């Protein structure tokens, strides 16, 4: 048992903090928000130059190979600064899955470009009413030289600008993981404005032909790939939430310490300070379950329960801390000239992405039921 | 970052778990059904406590000079967790909280008498801090100790002196500076043998367990029973609070309740057909318990790991106390809800589930959130030490 963060990981995190603080001053965030796309390409290049896009990409493909845990530490910093970059879909859901499940040829084709910031691959793990990429409703039909994929995926980041989108479909009896070119025939992208304020896309596929070289895995390998992607994505979302919630809590602690009403700082009212203290407890709990899930994935150990628990805490803590932060700020908190609203938007987005707390509590309950029915009777 | 027990730590866990099965003898299981002995103190309890001493299990974390094994906090926690899980009324406050302080601060004769006795599993120490008018504001306590030659004359009353009915000593905080405005700067610690003249007690029956009010009427106590310097008692009280909490909020004791209810729900038929555990509302409660329990485990591990690295962060210690105490109360309810009416059937009555353990545990639950430092005080500490917010008024 060791809660120490290695020196390499610490320096990567410090480097990230430095770059992110330069790129996320309020004026810069506002300027990005005025753009059509909520993506800071300059920041992405700066992260690439610093080697931070390749934390979980092997050295052979131009990464640093520090591993998944380090990547979640970067996710936490992204959350802390609400930096407009698609770190989870590109680096976790897509690159992380490719690193572990793609062929060597595919890895050499895609990962160096992701690490150096010249290629973007997004991921589409969710469908309407289905966040589980191991059970897609999208279908894949085997054909000469590849598969034809049909169906709909939703809320995809950077769908119009990426080279490929990683997603899953089923042939009836087996799962297929593929890289779909968003410019291929049969693809329609429909804009979807989401809670963060960014425009994502619905991807409608009608017999989109995917050549064999863009098929990442089929059958049990595809199942393993999508299980990994699902768990890693949930964990990374929890890591972003750690940063978001920690920052919201600190903003609130500071604001209530300075803001005076009835002739004294708000923080000197116990009703106020205790609500912020409750946020502190939530953040610490969320941090612990997230660190556990991330380190288990990092070491390749079974992480299913730990990930479910992390995402349950993620949704609950994100909601509670966000609401408490808003409440303790009064009108200032909802004002778009004050930074808090961005955090609250992200918190809601993350809470409802890759499974809500209620849904995953249900999943965990079913797993507990299966476990005890099998051992008791 | 690696949040798992090592193979050696798992082996220790297993060793303690097996050993404690031999401590929980059929005789002891019968004895603790008697309300008087539920919290220890019966002859079989005494016998098993002394056996743990003889087998070298007491004082694992103490220095080698005191006969301990200098185990790390992580290993000490693994031991504590398993002992609490077993249900043995091991006197942690004696072995882990007061004895190390006594060892470091008492004179040689008392150190030999008390520390040696604890090591052998022959001595139990009750805590005499709270008074009828000094609870959360402990430093306002009024029990007085006045110097008289080589002795101290002690007068006053203590409240909630748990285990005093069978303890050998009371670890007593008394005011030695008559100026009450000095509050915590006027307190001194004493060990009061419970067979001394002028000491008496009356039982206090609580919602859960029996505790005591203890009275000190012209108790003449030789100065050798003073521990630490005169008027320097406060730091002896506060120095061990984190250790105390670590034995209160361990993971195993509630994890075993969760597992027990899961097993029960998997065996029990639901009126609608199938087993109770197949009901969505049951699964919801069990999953909510499991996700909260995981944090209890991680908080304990992080705390003991941090204590091996250096002093514990004040805000983190308070987070552990508030979260665990409030979650324990919630867990009792969530598990009792699964059991429904059967959850109300007490130990030894027909139809009791898990021997009525949860019916008993909810009764001691309310103490957790105010005992050992009220949660309001802990939240004040979190706001100040964790977030640098100004002191509340």
Q: What key attributes describe this structure?
A:
heterodimer, A: 377 residues, Butyryl-CoA Dehydrogenase, subunit A, domain 2, Butyryl-CoA Dehydrogenase, subunit A, domain 3, 3 domains, 4-stranded antiparallel beta sheet, 12 helices, 10 strands, globular, B: Butyryl-Coa Dehydrogenase, subunit A, domain 1, 4-stranded mixed beta sheet, 48% helix
The CATH first-level class of the largest domain in chain B comes to: Mainly Alpha
What radius of gyration of chain B results from the CA coordinates? 22 Å
Tell me the strand order in the biggest sheet of chain A. Answer: 1-4-5-8
The main β sheet of chain A shows up as: 4 strands, mixed
Kindly estimate the percentage of residues of chain B that lie in beta strands according to DSSP: 5-15%
What is the number of E strands of chain A?
Answer: 10
Total separate domains of chain B: 3
Q: Given this structure, which CATH class of the largest domain in chain A is correct?
A: Mainly Alpha
Which CATH architecture of the largest domain in chain A? Answer: Up-down Bundle
CATH H level of the largest domain in chain A: which superfamily?
Butyryl-CoA Dehydrogenase, subunit A, domain 3
Q: Could you estimate the helical fraction of the residues of chain B in percent?
A: 40-55%
Q: Count all strands of chain B and give the number.
A: 8
Question: What fraction, in percent, of the residue positions of chain A are helical?
Answer: 55-70%
How far apart the termini of chain B lie comes to 40 Å
Mean pLDDT of chain A: 97
Account of the 3D structure:
The complex is a heterodimer of chains A (377) and B (393). Chain A is α+β, with helices and mostly antiparallel strands. Chain A is 55% helix and 16% strand. In chain A, helix 1 (7-23) packs parallel to helix 4 (68-81) and helix 5 runs antiparallel to helix 6 (104-116). The longest helix of chain B has 30 residues, at 280-309. In chain B, helix 4 (73-86) crosses helix 9 (251-267), helix 9 (251-267) packs antiparallel against helix 10 (280-309) and helix 9 packs parallel to helix 11 (314-339). The model of chain B has no long low-confidence stretch (mean pLDDT 93). Chain B has a four-stranded mixed beta sheet. Chain B is an alpha+beta fold and 393 residues long. Chain B folds into three domains: 7-90, Acyl-CoA dehydrogenase/oxidase, N-terminal domain (Butyryl-Coa Dehydrogenase, subunit A, domain 1, Orthogonal Bundle); 127-231, Butyryl-CoA Dehydrogenase, subunit A, domain 2; 249-387, Butyryl-CoA Dehydrogenase, subunit A, domain 3 (Up-down Bundle). The chains are: A alpha+beta (377), B alpha+beta (393). At the A-B interface, helix 7, strand 10, helix 8, helix 9 and helix 12 of A face helix 9, helix 10, helix 11 and helix 13 of B.
């Amino acid at each position: 048992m060791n809660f120490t963060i290695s020196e390499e990981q610490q320096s990567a995190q410090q480097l990230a903090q430095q770059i992110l603080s330069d790129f996320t001053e309020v004026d810069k965030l506002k300027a990005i928000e005025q753009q059509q796309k909520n993506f800071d390409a300059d920041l992405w290049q700066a992260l690439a130059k610093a080697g931070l896009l390749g934390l979980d990409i092997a050295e052979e493909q131009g990464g640093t190979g520090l591993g998944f845990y380090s990547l979640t530490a970067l996710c936490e910093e992204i959350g802390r600064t609400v930096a407009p970059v698609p770190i989870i879909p590109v680096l976790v859901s897509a690159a992380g899955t490719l690193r572990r499940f793609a062929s060597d040829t595919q890895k050499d084709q895609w990962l160096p470009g992701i690490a150096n910031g010249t290629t973007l691959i997004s991921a589409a793990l969710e469908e309407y009413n289905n966040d589980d990429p191991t059970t897609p409703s999208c279908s894949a039909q085997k054909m000469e030289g590849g598969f034809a994929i049909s169906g709909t995926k939703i809320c995809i980041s950077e769908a119009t600008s990426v080279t490929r989108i990683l997603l899953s479909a089923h042939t009836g009896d087996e799962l297929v993981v593929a890289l779909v070119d968003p410019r291929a025939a049969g693809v329609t992208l429909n804009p979807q404005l989401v809670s963060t304020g960014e425009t994502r896309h619905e991807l409608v596929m009608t017999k989109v032909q995917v050549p064999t070289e863009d098929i990442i895995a089929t059958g049990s390998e595809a199942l393993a790939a999508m299980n990994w992607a699902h768990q890693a994505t949930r964990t990374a979302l929890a890591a972003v939430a750690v940063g978001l919630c920690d920052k919201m809590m600190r903003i609130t602690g500071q604001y209530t310490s300075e803001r005076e009403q009835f002739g004294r700082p708000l923080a000197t009212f116990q009703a106020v300070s205790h609500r912020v203290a409750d946020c502190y407890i939530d953040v610490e709990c969320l941090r612990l379950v997230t660190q556990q899930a991330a380190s288990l994935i990092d070491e390749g150990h079974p992480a299913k329960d730990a990930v479910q628990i992390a995402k349950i805490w993620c949704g609950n803590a994100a909601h509670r801390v966000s609401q408490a932060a808003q409440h303790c700020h009064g009108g200032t908190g909802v004002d778009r000239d004050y930074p808090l609203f961005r955090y609250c938007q992200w918190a809601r987005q993350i809470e409802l992405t890759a499974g809500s707390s209620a849904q995953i509590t249900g999943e965990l309950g079913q797993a507990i039921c299966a476990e005890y029915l099998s051992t008791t009777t | 970052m690696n949040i798992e027990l090592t193979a050696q730590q798992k082996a220790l866990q297993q060793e303690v778990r097996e050993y404690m099965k031999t401590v929980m003898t059929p005789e002891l299981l019968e004895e603790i059904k008697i309300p008087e002995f539920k919290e220890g103190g019966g002859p079989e309890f005494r016998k098993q406590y002394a056996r743990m001493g003889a087998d070298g299990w007491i004082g694992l974390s103490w220095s080698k000079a005191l006969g301990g094994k200098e185990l790390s906090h992580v290993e000490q926690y693994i031991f504590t967790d398993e002992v609490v899980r077993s249900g043995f009324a091991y006197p942690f406050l004696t072995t882990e909280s007061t004895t190390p302080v006594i060892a470091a601060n008492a004179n040689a004769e008392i150190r030999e008498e008390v520390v040696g006795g604890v090591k052998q599993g022959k001595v139990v120490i009750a805590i005499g801090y709270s008074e009828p008018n000094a609870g959360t504001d402990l430093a306002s306590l009024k029990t007085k100790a006045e110097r008289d030659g080589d002795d101290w004359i002690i007068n006053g009353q203590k409240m909630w002196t748990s285990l005093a009915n069978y303890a050998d000593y009371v670890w007593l905080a008394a005011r030695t500076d008559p100026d009450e405005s000095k509050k915590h700067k006027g307190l001194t610690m004493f060990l009061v043998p419970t067979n001394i003249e002028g000491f008496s007690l009356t039982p206090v029956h609580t919602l859960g367990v029996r505790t005591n009010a203890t009275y000190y009427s012209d108790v003449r106590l030789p100065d050798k029973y003073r521990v630490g310097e005169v008027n320097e008692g406060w730091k002896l009280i506060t120095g061990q609070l984190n250790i105390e909490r670590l034995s209160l909020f361990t993971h195993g004791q509630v994890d075993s309740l969760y597992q027990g209810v899961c097993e029960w729900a998997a065996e029990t038929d639901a009126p609608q057909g199938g087993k109770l555990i197949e009901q969505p509302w049951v699964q919801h409660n069990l999953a909510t318990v499991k996700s909260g329990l995981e944090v209890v485990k991680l908080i304990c591990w992080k705390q003991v790991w941090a204590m091996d690295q250096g002093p514990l962060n004040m805000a983190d210690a308070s987070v552990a106390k508030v979260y665990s105490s409030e979650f324990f109360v919630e867990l009792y309810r969530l598990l009792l809800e699964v059991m429904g009416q059967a959850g109300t059937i007490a130990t030894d009555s027909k139809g009791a589930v898990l021997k009525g353990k949860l019916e008993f545990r909810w009764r001691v639950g309310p103490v957790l959130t105010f005992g050992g430092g009220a949660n309001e005080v802990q939240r004040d500490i979190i706001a100040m030490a964790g977030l640098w917010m100004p002191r509340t008024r």
